Amino acid sequence: MAARKKPAATAKTVLVTGAAGSLAKRVIARLHPTYNVIAVDFRHKVDLDGGIPSYRVETHKRDFEDVFRSHKIDAIIHIGRIFAHESDRHRRYNANVLGMKKLLELAKRYGVGQIIVHSTFLVYGATAYNPALLDEDQPLKASEVTQELVDSVELESLANIFLWKHPELNITILRPCTVLGPGVRNTMSILLARPMVPVLVGFSPMMQFLHVDDMADAIKVAFEQNKPGIYNVAPDDWIAYQDAVEQSGCRRLPILSVPPAIPRMVSNLLNWNAFFPAYMIDFFKYPVVIDGKLFREAFDWRPKRNLNDIFSYYRRQKLPAG
Amino acid sequence: MNLRESLKLLSPDALKESLLSRVVTPEIDAWMARMPKPVGSFGYDPWGYNESQAKVGLGIAKLLYDHYFRVTSTGLENIPAKGRVLLIANHSGQLPMDGMMISVAVATNDHGPRVPRSMIERFFPTVPWVGNLLAAWGSVIGDPLNAVKMLDAEELLIVFPEGVRGSGKPYAKRYELQRFGHGFMHMAMTQNVPIVPVGVVGCEETMPSLLNFWPLAKLLGIPYFPIGPLMPLPARVYLNFGKPMRFTGCVTREDEVEQRVEEVKDAIRGLIDVGLKQRTQIF
């Protein structure tokens, strides 16, 4: 069994948060056993083979420090996050923003030499005035558009403050486009897995999608090459939202788009189980297309899976059993 | 043909097919095939341009170009067949018919057809269907970042530096150039882009407006509300494309930029005069 292999004594120790998630699992699989991996998650203690130490811990709570006390951690890959469709705004703020702050402070105190922060393209915010191919230095307008994303923006600005204040932490912030694929539990992935998906009549903004395996590769190269900074992560390919819905084998549920009060009302009525979250209304109307050129060139990384590979996973889910 | 077959021809799908084949002629297909335009795996580009939808758009616009506005285009050889370029034109006629006609001229240019990219008003993306359709046909909002990235991708941009000042002006001010924005000139200088000046004649007469009824415009959230005909009139349109102009070197002050903008305005005025002389009848 491959899991019996042991990392070298000189190998770096990497703490991965959000270990129960699809992306973190893939990152861990890529790092182990070359590196000593330590897995934490706020949901439950993840069972991992190969003797990977695993803890259930919330990053904004006191016992998170115990992980740093019992292991000499060289690098942190911070993926763990409560998504905007999960929990309420207050709890999310505590976990995401205060958790980020705690993590950064502990990293500083315990001499961690590298941090990868997994952010999101959502921080740019969907507005009608968005140009396409947003660079990393564009203003982050998400909190102007919806309060549900305030925590995402603040998490990033905290990471940014530490990025220039503490260069020894070697912080790399990754802002991927929508990540999709097996096991991914973000809003868009949950939507496309459903047989019917809401679309706003007369709107079909451009979107970008990245396979979760490609994102895991991106995190691995960002960790190994260690070039601190802020990077968009996106492929060089685009598709309109309604086409993506169709390609994923979903039926479209058209929702009247004007006046703007109507989609908000429908969202209030239909938003059981993240079916039509209010903060996504603007993302269903206006494009947030990011330019991933800087990351692709700096790390010599290209996605290996195309849009059709991504959609075929969601199409297969809708095939009748047997 | 039996009854069943003739009924089939009346089904919505068959009607759509036959209508499409009339709009997207083999000629349109041939022009589209000649355009140097990279797209992603589903035929889109980052700004929402879509090959198959652009074909339909070009087909419809070409019918208007040939039979409604009966456009005469001169100087098409001045448009480079490839590489970044800015087409700078005078704006008029309330609705962006001038942009549409320049687009057809560019897309069906025998000297080398190009995908026309018009820079449009920022309120368009908020209008259902219209925003998406305009994007699929190649338009983008006039944001500097869009322009910079498109020129980097070696695209052809159509810019009306007068903006709504030009298109929304009343008929009494026809063929008077309004104030030009300077953005295009900065772009031309920093990114080394040739400027092809374009003089548009005839679009002023498509929608003569007495005045802009601004209280209603404000209420509707649109840039202006013209008091005039409800749809564009079939005026003949004359497009004159001038020789490419290059502006290089650095400037230190904004009034030097203005001087260069004035040079372009002069070139456009000259081309408008040529068009007015070409025109023997308005309709």
From TrEMBL, chain A:
Pathway: Bacterial outer membrane biogenesis; LPS O-antigen biosynthesis
Domain of life: Bacteria
Pfam families, per database record: Epimerase
Domain NAD-dependent epimerase/dehydratase: 14-234
Family membership: Belongs to the NAD(P)-dependent epimerase/dehydratase family.
Protein's name according to its UniProt entry: UDP-glucose 4-epimerase
Organism annotation: Hydrocarboniphaga daqingensis
Automatic annotation (TrEMBL), chain B:
GO cellular component, one term: membrane
SUPFAM superfamilies membership: Glycerol-3-phosphate (1)-acyltransferase (SSF69593)
InterPro entries to which the protein is assigned, alphabetical: Plipid/glycerol_acylTrfase
Organism: Hydrocarboniphaga daqingensis
SMART domains xref list: PlsC (SM00563)
Top-level taxon: Bacteria
Record keywords: Acyltransferase, Transferase
Domain Phospholipid/glycerol acyltransferase residue range list: 85-203
Name of protein: 1-acyl-sn-glycerol-3-phosphate acyltransferase
An annotated Gene Ontology molecular function: acyltransferase activity
